[in-house]
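Message: I would love a firmer grasp of how sequence relates to backbone shape in proteins. Thank you; the sequence and its tokens follow:
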Amino acid sequence: KRPNTLCLQRLRRTMVEVRPVEVAEFRATEELIREAFWNHFQPGADEHFIAHNLRKGTDYVPELDLVAVLEGKLVGSIVYSKSKIDTNDGRSFTDVVTFGPLGVLPEYRNRGIAAKLIQESLRLAKEMGFRAVIIQGDPRFYGRLGFRCGEKYDLTNVEKQFCVGLMAYQLFEGALDGAGGCFSESESFGFAEEALAEFDTSFPPKEKGESAFQSEFAVLLSLCYAKDPKYTS
């Protein structure tokens, strides 16, 4: 009797191994990330360069740099870095982390691989004593994994705006109680376009293209609004 498609999908998911990346695999994961993001959120990609810079920076968290392996092939990657919250009452929380880039090869999407990378990294981050994971991304995906809008915890971006794409995951109950304030990620996320262009010459050339999803995602990330002063304590 032939197994049905659903059973096959479940079997393939259980075969995915999530483990720490090896230094010798850094370049391979950069190639993976470039392929995963190329023409996805924007024409071309910059996430592979961000991963490269994060790994050289002081905010890099090597224990949370994980890969997904299926049948001996690298198919997914997640990279973490330290971030912080400057609270409204003058404190600074540095026991928060951010993940990204998170990438899965296009031909391996919709198999639960990204979710598996996130869930394992959340478990490890909790064991390491971090307070929360704060990210900027698509709430339609991350909301299903337990992330909540930053506004729920009174968290804004560096422009002191609430944003639909700014989300947080508490690693223990009450972790973000009283932690309202301005969230900022590692400076390694910033880069010069010239540096990206030079870095990209070491990869095979690819044609840049536009898509309707890119416009949709840009609108989603632009949904930010200033905090109403009457709700400021």
Q: What stands out?
A: The first strand starts at residue 17 and ends at 20. The chain has a mean pLDDT of 93.
